TrEMBL record:
Keywords tagged on the record: Aminopeptidase, Cytoplasm, Hydrolase, Membrane, Protease, Transmembrane, Transmembrane helix
Enzyme type, top EC level: hydrolase
Domain of life according to the entry: Bacteria
Bilayer-spanning residue ranges: 7-26
Name of the protein described by the UniProt record: Proline iminopeptidase
InterPro entries: AB_hydrolase_1, AB_hydrolase_fold, Peptidase_S33, Pro_iminopeptidase
The enzyme's E.C. designation: 3.4.11.5
Keyword flag Protease: yes
Native source species: Candidatus Litorirhabdus singularis
Stored SUPFAM superfamilies: alpha/beta-Hydrolases
Residue ranges of domain AB hydrolase-1 in the record: 71-182
Compartments (UniProt record): Cytoplasm
Amino acid sequence: MKVLARWFVYPLLGFIVLVLTVALSYRSYKQSSIENETQIVSPRGIQTLELVELNGLQQWVKIRGHDTSNPVLLYLHGGPGMPELPFSHLFDLEIEEHFTVVHWDQRGSGKTRRQGFSNKDLTVPVFIDDTLALTNHLRARFQQDKIYLAGHSWGSMLGTLVVQREPELFHAYIGLGQLTNLHDNEVVSLNFVREEAVADNNKAAIAELAALAPPYTDDIGQLRVQRKWLYYYGGGFRGLGYADIFLAVFTSPDYSLADTYAMLKGLDVSAVMWPEVARYNLEETALDWQVPVYFLAGRYDYNTPSELAERYFEKLSAPRKAFIWFEKSAHMMNLSDPQFYQDTMINRVLAETQ
């Protein structure tokens, strides 16, 4: 045993310590670099990471912009439970010159998860109320009658429901990876993966996918199997992957290691809310819009299939509407093509609605 410890255990422990030391040093270096590179120094600018009480729970928001008189843009992340706050600097820096941009870790997610939560509050109506509470907080704080609302994936369903309820609070709505209804969403997504697996003669994938029955409301584990193969075949990420996102979170100056752990734990919010979210069908209940509507769609997106977003878009009526393709992207279009995303927000959305 002493020989084993001397020649195997101790060197292994030493190697692990070395790896951790290097990883944490790299993290510290990257955090400092990002802070320095993204510093807002304009006299009327704002950069803050703070807690805001929304319906009885303290929740984290990040607010950045070069001029607080610019219009406010509230961004709703996906999941439920998948914050984009820690890596928003990868796709927002130019937008911050024209908007005051607000990222929010929703109830049970990311940094906010550490503030406590109850599963009984992880419901769609509670999230709608939270969003409206934050909207009104921002309107009062920045003395603006209306704000812009963007929603990605799950955030696009939440954003749609919010704007349908209180349209007078918003200049325009932007849906990224617009979700319509989970039943059709998962049928189309599964068919895509099955076709890819057959074309690839991937026997393991074909076997695992054969047993799946969307929309997985009785067995969320089936969704995880489907998503594993969906991302393997490029229906979720193009030009990046899970490792890129984890590295962005790990090196984010906005997140501590405890926050990163809380974010990973918070991915279970999807499992809690999935059966309820599956009952919503926006193609039946949200066709009449009172604000301009912009849908941003990845050509290869089969997480929230763009063909369904396009079908929904054709049915809805709005004072102005536009469907904008991201030709090289899948579900995370703002990350895989950040320049086109920023150009769209500044030169299309803002230019046409301010």
